[in-house]
Specification:
The chain is of the alpha/beta class. α2 (33-45) runs antiparallel to α10 (277-293) and α3 packs across α10. A seven-stranded mixed β-sheet has the order 2-8-7-6-5-3-4, with helices on both faces. The chain contains 14 helices and 15 strands.
């Protein structure tokens, strides 16, 4: 029996809905009470604008915001916390790199390499950068198990490659990229900048930016028990210092002259306007919660749960499961039920208290390669347990019986 790693009682929404089987954590995770308490606590005891006020309350807000940046740095393994840029999430982080580093460094004749596994947030910015600059976009195809084909990656990268975008973990099928091998291939064949989408990795796997030998890494807080609207871009200091600002105004400015401006140091240069301090504090609380669980335990829990779910769903007639074996996936089970549209399936499962995601999962290039318009996706996290698997299988069986009776 696989019990939850984190008790449902810690999560107010789940505790208030004991019959709910929430299997859409890859889209957004539920929030434990310590995270909600931290956000409320900020507004009740430290609500002031960081960096702006010469009074004690503002200093407290500044300290909490600074401490949150340190928590992120510790959690993702970067010694230099000044290289942690707070963003609204992974999508904004990728657009920051594309707009700032990309526009300044990519031109006609250059090449950008992406993979067919990418979320739109790590595909469209590079596609649009190529269209705007005259660069060539190369797409690395996948293995039959929907993992990045490293041989094709090797073929795609050359001395003209300026940027390589990789997902650490696929949101659509859960495939974990052998990032060390992929980075070694890129480094051996080019001087390209490597950008990694870590939105689905940071919540599930131990991550150490300083040992990955990459240039940029992005993630979103709401997928790892934190609030929506906060995330981070991690970058190499040498690159960040050379990059022009992404947005203008607020604390990213050092001096404004009549004809020009000078910019603040990183990370502030990339954090225009009033910072999202309360959600940064909430993210830090989520990180502390996960650190107390232990990321190795998080990973072991989801593998055990996914192995049971994968075997049980595969045993149902007419089911196709996508992605590599469970040991090579995060807590994602992406599947299709013969002759039933995923949207219809999700609607039926919802009537049984089972919440799954149905659609293209912001991965239309991948869906085209699977030959489908959409899949159904169940995703597990620290509060999931075997009762969720049983509810999923039971609801799928009921859906099959319903559609068979209609036929």
């Amino acid at each position: 029996m696989v019990s939850p790693l984190a008790p449902r009682a810690d999560f107010p929404l789940l505790a208030a809905n004991p019959g709910l089987h929430y299997l859409d954590s890859a889209a957004t995770s539920q929030k434990p009470a310590p995270v909600l308490d931290a956000i409320r606590g900020f507004y009740e005891s430290a609500n002031a604008n960081p960096h702006r006020g010469a009074y004690a309350l503002s200093a407290r807000a500044t300290d909490l915001y600074h401490d949150a940046r340190g928590a992120v740095a510790r959690f993702v393994g970067v010694r230099d916390s000044g290289c942690v840029i707070f963003t609204r999430g992974t999508t904004e982080a990728m657009n920051l790199v594309a707009s700032s580093w990309g526009r300044a460094n990519v031109g006609a004749g250059d090449e950008i390499v992406v993979t067919a596994l990418e979320h739109h947030a790590n595909f469209v910015p590079w596609q649009q950068l190529a269209l705007a600059t005259g660069a060539t976009l190369r797409i690395v195809e996948l293995t039959p198990q929907q993992t990045i084909d490293l041989d094709l990656l090797r073929d795609a990268v050359n001395t003209r490659t300026k940027l390589v975008a990789l997902t650490h973990v696929s949101n659509a099928v859960g495939a974990i990229t052998p990032l060390q091998d992929a980075v070694h291939i890129v480094r051996a064949r080019s001087a390209a900048v490597i950008v990694v989408d870590g939105a689905q990795a940071v919540p599930h796997l131990p991550v150490s930016f300083d040992t990955l030998d990459i240039d940029f890494y992005a993630f979103s807080g709401h997928k790892l028990l934190g609030p929506m609207g906060i995330g981070a871009l991690i970058g190499r200091r040498a690159l960040l210092e050379k990059m022009p600002p992404y947005q203008f105004g607020g604390d990213m400015i050092e001096w404004v002259h009549d004809t020009d401006c000078t910019w603040n140091v990183i990370p502030h240069k990339f954090e225009a306007g009033t910072p999202n301090a309360a959600d940064a504090v909430g993210l830090a609380a989520a990180i502390r919660y996960l650190e107390a669980l232990g990321m190795a335990n998080v990973r072991a829990h989801e593998v055990a749960l996914l192995e049971r779910a994968d075997a049980a769903v595969r045993a149902l007639p007419g089911v196709t499961v996508y992605g590599p074996p469970p040991a090579l996936r995060s807590g994602v089970l992406s599947f299709a039920l013969a002759d039933v549209h995923p949207h219809d399936l999700a609607t039926i499962l919802d009537q049984h208290g089972v919440c799954i995601r149905a659609g293209h999962h912001c991965g239309q290039p991948l869906m085209r390669r699977l030959g489908v318009s959409a899949t159904a996706r169940a995703s597990f996290y620290v509060y999931s347990d075997e009762s969720d698997v049983e509810a999923l299988v039971g609801a799928l069986t009921a859906a099959q019986q319903l559609f068979e009776s209609v036929d």
